[in-house]
Amino acid sequence: MATISITMPDGRTWTPQFVQEISQEKCIGCGRCFKVCGRDVLQLAGITDEGEFVPLEAGDDDDDEEYEKKVMTIANQMNCVGCEACAKICPKKCYTHTPMENP
Ligand code: SF4
Ligand code: SF4
Fold first, then answer.
1. What local confidence, expressed as pLDDT, does residue 57 receive?
2. Rounded CA gap, 63 and 85, in Å?
3. Residue with CA nearest ligand 1 atom 3
4. With a 6 A CB cut-off, is 56 part of the ligand 2 pocket?
5. 79 burial class (0-12, 13-18, 19+ CB within 10 angstroms)?
6. Which atom of ligand 1 is closest in space to residue 17's alpha carbon?
7. Is 68 among the domain residues?
């Protein structure tokens, strides 16, 4: 099955790579990916010692100890346009992206 690709104005083909997963083990919660995503896909969250997510605002200086560490999460996956800006700026190589199959 063919993947979705786009023909750019100069005739070249571009295949969008859509966000699939963020490694919670590698992520340091730096927020860089959040800043470059213009599609409201990502959400910073805290993980509690029981593995539950606590949504946080980006730039939140919340110092209370409700959670073990901050990680980025995918809150609105269907908003993603596959630009890969998040993966390019991530210093820890947390991202997995895949092309989308044509229905
Ligand atoms: S690929 Fe682009 S649109 Fe999708 S989450 Fe990353 S920065 Fe946002
Ligand atoms: S840029 Fe990478 S390490 Fe930083 S919050 Fe995003 S996924 Fe985590």
1. 72
2. 29
3. 80
4. no
5. middle
6. 1
7. yes
Is the pLDDT at 29 greater than 90, yes or no?
A: yes
Query: How long, in residues, is the chain?
Result: 103
Structural domain harbouring 72: 15-98
Number of domains composing the chain: 1
Output the domain CATH number for residue 47.
3.30.70.20
Does some domain include residue 29?
Answer: yes
Residue 58: inside a domain: yes
Amino acid at 68: E
- Average predicted confidence (pLDDT) for the chain: 91
Residue 72 lies in a domain: yes
* Buried residues in 40-63 as b, exposed as e (16+ CB within 10 A): ebbbbbbbeeeeebeebeeeeeee
Tell me: the pLDDT tens digits for 52-77? 888 887 566 655 668 889 999 999 99
